[in-house]
Each structure stands twice: as structure tokens, then as C-alpha cells.
Amino acid sequence: MKVQKIVIASLAGMSFLSLAHGTEVSSAMLKNAATNTSSVLSFGLGSEGQRYSPLTQVNSKNVAKLVPAWSFSFGGEKQRGQESQPVIHNGKMFVTASYSRIFAIDMKTGQKLWKYEHRLPDGIMPCCDVVNRGAALFGNLVIFGTLDAQLVALNQDTGKVVWKEKVDDYAAGYSMTAAPLIADGVLLTGVSGGEFGIVGRVEARNPLTGELLWTRPTVEGHMGYRYDKDGKAIENGISGTLNKTWPGELWKTGGASTWMGGTYDSKTGLAYFGTGNPAPWNSHLRPGDNLYSSSTVALDVKTGQIKWAYQNTPNDSWDFDGANEFVTFDMDGKRYGGKADRNGFFYVIDANSGKLQNAFPFVKKITWASSIDLKTGRPNFIPSNRPGDPTKGEEGKKGSTVFAAPAFLGAKNQMPMAYSQQTGLFYVPANEWGMDIWNEPISYKKGGAYLGAGFTIRPLFDDYIGALRAVDPKSGKIVWEVKNNAPLWGGVMSTAGNLVFYGTPEGFLKALDAKTGKELWKFQTGSGVVAPPVTWQDGDTQYVAVVSGWGGAVPLWGGEVAKKVNFLEQGGSVWVFKLSSK
């Protein structure tokens, strides 16, 4: 099939289709998604990922009157973590759920219109619960990834499969949990599985057919490809330089998964993907920086070439996975990106060039580095805080143990932050915890855990673990914070109504004053909130929605922290709110 011609013809026709039918999602609509208040067309409330809404009907003066409009249960025995952000278009809400399910719901009534439940094989290996974070909309399709590393495109009206493509081998540890990204008419996706020695990459596809356009590996030494009109792979240059920053053969199973997906900025024309930890965790096996792990990689959407890359944690030894979102914004007349990294530092980077502008802590305890050198962009490591080489330990079985902070679950993990165009602040869901960590010998085995480390997580403070923090990207100051007993694991949304919305594992969706952090409203959803909220306006009514359902990595990997929150109940539902008329 002639892939490139199909893409050009199909995308050129999108504007006509949207005019003719009034329902097709076009590239032009997605470009302006952040200002489209009647829909939620993409993950992040716009491809830039700011999670900022210009809506003001619900505001800091009246948010206390917010009441439920409807709630929808995902049903069945399949609960676990619910990390999905709904997308909303043409009167329908599309929301994914655990175990690779997706629902279409009537936006006004909460009635189920259809459900698609992907048939998962035995032996899937998601590292961090059976989650899914959302879908993408394009044309009359809704597209999402599955736990067995497939992409599925469904008709928005009927839920029927339009196309389905296998991305990689789930038996080798590959999976998909992120919401796909549409960038300038191209479908961009990443892969999960860094704990199994997979090779991270970004893929570009025709969103209408699922056919590949290009692939770009995020481990140095692997070849990228583009695909001609007949689907034939053509070499498109190696990522980096073979063996320059990776020793021996370890680059072949190097990790650096792109498991959180990416963002796209039409002002720069670049897509930004965070990359995960290098594999294995035992850094003594892989001396060197290990590009492009634990980094932000900026890609040319048309060619699949890396335009720039910034590495947050070279030669990562703590699982300070750099997959966190890169959120672009304007400051002092220039375009920057903000990133709250798992390693505890907040980075402000020129979105066009990749040059570091600022870097500062957003948590209270960081032990692996004292600071980030703003001239070189490199961390000032504290060598004594790297776990010891197991070959030099007792009987060569275990290296010396160190206490490291943050813990490997990160100062911020999958929960997306928000940026407010009104206040100029980022709102970051942070966690204060540390870990005892040690290295162990390890060798790669297909489908096996590929860590080479042991660990125990524990809280740093008695009174809280999570803290929502308002961060000034220019000064590096924490303007305000709101502490939370349990770790924060859900995302954040800001609005022009001077509001910040976020959820807690204790089950609350909360609204705060964006300038002061004062709590103005909360609602108990019945299970932990580990998903980001959204808002939109239908007619003369503004709605706020969030998915509820406790789970994710914390109860699976959290050590002493998991014991502290083991009273929390699982669930699976979406809640929608509006202002009371009384």
C-alpha cells in the first residue's frame, strides 16, 4: 500500500471532512486543542501538555458548589489501577480502563454507548500494573495501545475495529500504556518494558491506516528506519554513535523505554519524548553515559531524526527514569520546556535548541547529586551515593547498600503536572521518599526481569509523602505546597478560573486556589484517584471529570510505603461534575 501518498491525501482531506460531517477530528482542530473549550481532543488538554483550560465558569469563587452530574462504572471484576484521561468529542467521552478496555459514553447522560475489550494473551508483563492512560482522536477514529503491545483503532460511533497493528513482542517484555500522540497529522507512539531489557523507540504511523512511516530507537547504536510507498524499510541513520556511550553488547538490550508517550509543539515543529532507565539497573556493567536513556529527546516529526537530546541522569544507577513529560511554554519571549524529573530536579530547557536554562530541586531531599551544572548541563554527582559494584562485594553477590533519595518511584512519576498561563506556575505532584538500594549480578534473558538491583522504599517524613507544589520555573522557588499523607499518583489540571484540580489516593478530587494553594472544594470518589482531571463546556455548562480507581506502581513496588496505604480500596469509574443550580 502506498503509505506516503495515503497520508498526504488523507490529511489534506481532513478539513473538508470536518466541514462536511461536523464530526471528524482534523489536524487543524488538534493544533488548536488547548483553546477548544467544547471538547477534550488530546491527552494533556492540547499536545503541548500544559493541562490548562481557559474556562472560567467554574472558578475560585463558586467551585464550592460543584456537584456530581453523573458517574459511570467500568464494571466487572477487572479493577486495579485506573490512570486514564478521558477525551471528549461530538457528544461522546472516550475513556480507557485497566486490562486494555475502552468505553464510549454519552457526554450528557453517562450512558454507555459501546465498549471494546481487547483480548489479552497469557504472559503479558507490564511492570507497573495493568493500566492504560488514554486514547487519541483523529478523523472518526479513537486509537489506543494495549498491554500486549498492539495499537487498535476503532470507529468512534460504533466501536468497531478499523485497523489493528502489532507493535512488538509482548513475550520479550514489550507493552503499551501511554496515550498515543497526533503531531501534525502523524500518529506517534512509544513502548513500555524497560525493566525487561527491551529497546525503547518512537514510531510514526499513518493514523488512518496504522502503517509505519518511520521508527527512531532511543538507545544509542540502533538503526532508525523510514518506510517507502510500498512499506519497505530504508535505513535512516543510527541513533548516536555505536559503542560511544555504551560498552560491549549491552546496548542491544538497553531499555530507555518511551512508556509515557510524548508532547508536540507546533511552534517548534518538534515532538518531545522522555526516555526511561537504562537496562540493567546495575550501572557498573555499563560505564558511560548510556545515551539516550533517562533523557528528553526532541524529534523532527517529518523525518524521525533526533534534533536534540538532553540527558537528565547520565549512567543512571537508581532507576531515575526520565520518561516524564516535557511541557512547552512561553517565558521572557522564548519557547521553553519544563520537566519535573524522577531524579528530583526540575529542568527548564530551550524547546528549540535543547540548551539548559535552569535546573533546581522540587523535593526536599536529593542524595545522588548536589546540583546541576548550568554551564555543562551535567549533574554534580555524589559518588558515595552510587550503589556498590557487586563484583567487589562479599562473594561477588551483592554490592554495598546506600540510602538514596528520591526512591526509584521518583520525585514525580507518571502523574502529569500542569502549567497555568494565568499564574506562570507549574503545579507538580511530588513525593518525598527514599530507598535502600544495592546492586546484584544480572544477565539478560528474554522475557525475564532485567534489574540487577534490590531495594526497599520508605517514607522520609512521618506526616506526609505526597505534596502538590506550585513551582516558579524562572526563579526555581516553591511558591506554595499542599501536603498529602499518601503518595500522589494522579495528575493535575489548572484553569483560568484561578483553580488547580488534582486527586489523591485517599479518594478525593480537590480544587485549590491557583495563587495560594488554599483548598476550596473536595469530593470523595470512593476509590483512589491516580488519573488526571479534565474540563470542557457543553452549551452553557462547564463540566469537570476524573477517573477513579486505586492501583498503579505504588501498591506493587512501594515497600514500606505500600504497607502504609494498603487500606485503600480498588475501583473503576469516571465521575463528572458541574455547578449546582441551587
TrEMBL record:
InterPro entries, A to Z: ADHI (IPR034119), PQQ_b-propeller_rpt (IPR018391), PQQ_MeOH/EtOH_DH (IPR017512), PQQ_rpt_dom (IPR002372), Quinoprotein_ADH-like_sf (IPR011047)
Binding site for pyrroloquinoline quinone: E83, R133, T177
Domain of life per record: Bacteria
Annotated active site: D319 (proton acceptor)
Disulphide bridges, residue numbers: C127-C128
EC numbers: 1.1.2.-
SUPFAM superfamilies in the cross-refs: Quinoprotein alcohol dehydrogenase-like (SSF50998)
Cofactor binding mode and count: Binds 1 Ca(2+) ion per subunit. Binds 1 PQQ group per subunit.
Keywords from the named record: Calcium, Disulfide bond, Metal-binding, Oxidoreductase, PQQ, Signal
GO MF term list: calcium ion binding; oxidoreductase activity, acting on CH-OH group of donors; pyrroloquinoline quinone binding
Residue numbers binding Ca(2+): E195, N277, D319
Keyword DNA damage carried by entry: no
Needed co-factor(s): Ca(2+); pyrroloquinoline quinone
Any Gene Ontology CC annotation: membrane
Domain Pyrrolo-quinoline quinone repeat: 43-355, 467-534
Signal peptide (from-to): 1-20
Family under the similarity heading: Belongs to the bacterial PQQ dehydrogenase family.
PANTHER family, alphabetized: QUINOPROTEIN ALCOHOL DEHYDROGENASE (CYTOCHROME C), QUINOPROTEIN ETHANOL DEHYDROGENASE
Cross-referenced NCBIfam families: PQQ_enz_alc_DH
Protein name: PQQ-dependent dehydrogenase, methanol/ethanol family
